[in-house]
Amino acid sequence: MFSEELTISVDGLGKKYDIYAKPADRLKQMILPRVGRTMGLHGLKYHEEFWALRDVTFNVQRGETVGIIGRNGSGKSTLLQMICGTLHPTEGNIRTSGRIAALLELGAGFNPEFTGEENVYLSGLLYGIPEKELRKRFDSILTFADIGDFIEQPVKTYSSGMYVRLAFSIAAHVDADALVIDEALSVGDIRFTQKCMRFLRDFQKKGTLLFVSHDTTAVTNLCNRAIWLDRGRKILDGPTKEVVEQYLAEQHAADRASIGQSVALKPSVRTSDEIKELPMPIHGEQLAYGSTDTVVVQAKTINAVDVNNKTKVFEFDPDRAGNQFGTGAAAITNVSLASNEGEASQLFLGGELVSLSIEAEVFKPLEAPIFGFYIKDRLGQRLFGDNTYLAYSEQPVVADTGRRLRATFTFRMPVLPSADYSIDVALANGSQADHTQQHWIHDALTFRANDCVTPCHGLIGIPMHSIKIQQLGS
Ligand SMILES: Nc1ncnc2c1ncn2[C@@H]1O[C@H](COP(=O)(O)OP(=O)(O)OP(=O)(O)O)[C@@H](O)[C@H]1O
């Protein structure tokens, strides 16, 4: 039975396309089977069957945010279009409850000949919002979209960014119970994207969200759950962090396999597409603490309290680390955090200088090794990270077979809200733009930040150089 708590229920869903090699085959398929049947011939086929989606089953509960990930052509858009009712399934069932607003890829939704304003009313009516109500909301829709006088121009004259601004603004104003978003946010500029993200974070508190993106970081940031599609099939459905990690690992394995490189270090070792976007962030992406000591102006107060932002580090244990992948030409053998004086320690303070060391053993010569790390929060959001590339780009450290290497990053442990965190470490070979991961370990070290007496508003806290209130003359 379809529960009231379910917003979307998808059962055995499939979409088949008949692919014809040439247009004439389509005609033959329409006419000849009938002729054949009258002659007692059956099963004449002039096309290939192609299943864009097959056998996909899942439920989305009211209030859930679910990310859909997968390679190009894996069936994500096909799935969303069927959920929104713009595409008919070949087999299976979809049940939805409440009002679903869709923000599908460009091309869907608006009548290109109509002006933006006409499209606002048209879309509103399709969502069942009475015209009188739409009039009341029109100004707010326009303000959100921020496309100025273009609202009076036909939509066919819009840039893709304007199109998405208007489409998103409408979807945000129709009191939807569920929002279905397909790649739309990749089009807008940063300010608009931030505005949409704020809206979505607010919407998440009450509504159901289905979110397709190639940007796995965005999926990780926004969704608690993810569904991975591949070649039209559901591969995995679960907590976002796990699904994204496995998806990236699988992608890298496939990429490596396609260029004939070995991929496995050990059964749990996987490869990842992160290689393309990383090795790890370049300098400048890292947290902007100065090289000189920062004065924490609240230090007096903080030190007066027994429990400040202490961070407890759990030692590196290769068997307990998360997913791993890489070619296996080198292996990371140890990871540790020490105080800046080099003392191995398990407790640090937010704002303290610490050193992260990554040691590795080389099995095959590396002409340009790059070590890197990321610090991630509980949802897998990357808070900051860095790599050795820029420091050694002019003169890479060449490592022969049998050598052992150690990279050390010294940085200020940020002030962190009380929660669990983890550190990904990696050793690649090559350049920032073109490299191969030799060994990447997700969650090599984990740590817990304790009671945040130190001011920390947001993902990480920056120790303040000064805080003042001044009386100004009237
Ligand atoms: N009308 C159609 N006729 C034939 N094949 C189609 C049709 N529409 C989609 N397909 C095929 O179905 C498969 C799934 O397409 P879909 O657009 O759903 O993938 P996707 O995961 O959204 O891809 P992308 O990430 O590139 O947007 C693709 O191989 C695509 O070529």
TrEMBL record:
Residues 36-256 form the ABC transporter domain. InterPro entries: AAA+_ATPase, ABC_transporter-like_ATP-bd, ABC_transpr_TagH-like, Bact_Polysacc_Export_ATP-bd, P-loop_NTPase, Wzt_C. The gene is wzt. SUPFAM superfamilies: P-loop containing nucleoside triphosphate hydrolases. Pfam families: ABC_tran, Wzt_C. The keyword ATP-binding applies. GO terms for molecular function: ATP binding. The keyword Lipid metabolism does not apply. Keywords: ATP-binding, Nucleotide-binding, Transport. It comes from the Bacteria. Belongs to the ABC transporter superfamily. This is ABC transporter ATP-binding protein. CDD domains: ABC_KpsT_Wzt, Wzt_C-like.
